[in-house]
Request: fold
Amino acid sequence: MTDDMLPPIAIIGAGSMGGAILHGLVSSGIAPRIVVTNRSVAKAELLAGLAGVESIALEAEPDGNTRAAATADVVLIGVKPAMVPDLLREIAPTLRPGTLVVSLAAGVTIATFERILGAGIPVLRSMPNTPAVVGKAVTGLAQGSTADAAAVAVARRLFETCGAVVEVPEAQIDPLSTISGSGPAYVFLLIEELTRAAIGKGFAEPEARLMAEQTFIGAAALLDATGEDPAELRRRVTSPKGTTERAIAVLQEARLDEVFARATDAALDRARELAQGA
Reply:
């Protein structure tokens, strides 16, 4: 294996997020050996044809999780949060010392992983978002107490196959989830409302959707291509005493800054409730 290649990887619970990361890894060409598990044969078969991937169905191979974990140098945990402790107890005896374990599970702390897996297993906690499906994720990455810089570097390269990576202390994972984790839903809501506004102006729904969706897609692409501050790009669209200036004034009067602060605060409160099992 060359220096630019990732070591053998297991994804235990390759559902929507684990599956998105899997596709990023396969497309990257830097992960030559990946073992994934799913509960059903039907789901496992959907991934079986991917290059370099061994897809295990637990209903056909009940000890598939332990086999996958035993053969990997990096293990991603993608099962539902409530299932994590039992899964960790299941695979802990088969993990080789130094195996890197990376959590995809919202609300499960690094301390929980480290307590069950023991001191010889470095742990990182991640928080990807749904644009991982199209290679445009933002993934927050938090380092456990025994994970060194080399472990972080491996995890960063892994997640960079499906987007951008932001390294944060674990205390910032939940706040990050209120921005990049929930953020796609905020954008989709804005597109919904702009589409409704267009329909209210007399446009048919297909044209209204096209205008709203492509405006967001185009604006994001312009921001990405230019690297400009969004406030500067907004100023360039907002001609003095023009129509856009009048519209922006209405939006600013609605105090969007306060609305987004309240929304993200509410999401953070709920993340903390979930972490406590509420």
